[in-house]
Amino acid sequence: MNTRKIFIVPFLLGIGLAGIYLWKQKDITTYRNNVAQNGKNNPMSLVTDALLFKQQKKYQEAYKKIRLAIELAPNNHGLHLLRKQIEQKLGKEKWEHYFKQENLTNKNPLKNKTVLIYAADWGLGDAFQLMRYARLTKKLGANIILEVALKPLIPLLSLCPYIDTIITPTDSQPYADFYIAMTDMPELCKNMLSLLEMHSPYLQAEKSLEKYWHTIITKNSGFSIGICWEGNTQYHRRRCIPLELLTSLAENTGIHLYSLQVGQCTKDIATLSHKNLIESFNKDFDKSHGCFMDTAAVMKSLDLAITIDTSIAHLAGALGVPVWIMLAKNAEWRWQENPDLSGWAPNYPSMRLFRQAKEGEWAPVIQEIRNCLPSFMEKKRPSGKTLYSMSNPCI
Question: Class of the 207-378 domain?
């Protein structure tokens, strides 16, 4: 018998019942008595109890109820999702309480502790940005387990030396002292931002791929720039710029452009009046080796990446690659100057922001980039790699 199929309706009914009673009934005791009539060992009854306790922020009680429900219906995916939500609430409370008691002058306050981090599932860029907190947690002495819902990222994240174990949502969950949502970590670690060591890259490329692509990229003697012109417009419609505008950068002497764009937008190259201005990679790029594996390796050999607000920007910043990001006038909240969001601020040392002055006008942004490129290109090491300097206003 398929427990998951027969329990999905009761599970949804449980959520519905909880919502109705929480909305209409002020007498919680009456509500609990009504639910109890379904039977103490009925999964629906346990789920509604768990939801009620969760609503009241009684997370320990909610956790006990959802664990009992899972024992009765272990294959129900909805129950495991609710369990993780409750675990994250418990983990956040436990973390906050622990660090109120713990003296942070101790260099390893999490020594002999295991922290299970639910990796960001908002988007790829969020995962790249917030991995810095996994490294911070490791620095505090913890054993790190990373649960990765975005499975295509596993090959790249597996290269992080500060991650001890990677699991997926379908794996059996190991014990941990703290269960933390990665998206909660900017708030939880807001008093530890000085420990992030942002001057040091926290993602890395696979060494053999890096060597392979370095050989390819350095065949061209020009200044190598990777470009990405469109992000996920489903989340933010302003995350795109006409490719023709970007390729105008190649009019500067000695610049060689590489496409870091993937997906349907790569077809834009065929519409260019001068297709030879930009070089793209083969169809196997980022496929056989894993998502972003080739991109990360290529980036390490580029002199500069220029991109719209998308995951490519966060990947470049996390790799320590010089990157210039083009932002719309009303860019996403994380790019705004807001002290309350300091834990979410990208703050990549190798990144420079180029903002629109007027909504929808990208030509002035490209012109500003063109004006800054010559001085940036002059700052090159003897080996040919770019020297990034915060002292130059155009770097």
Answer: alpha beta
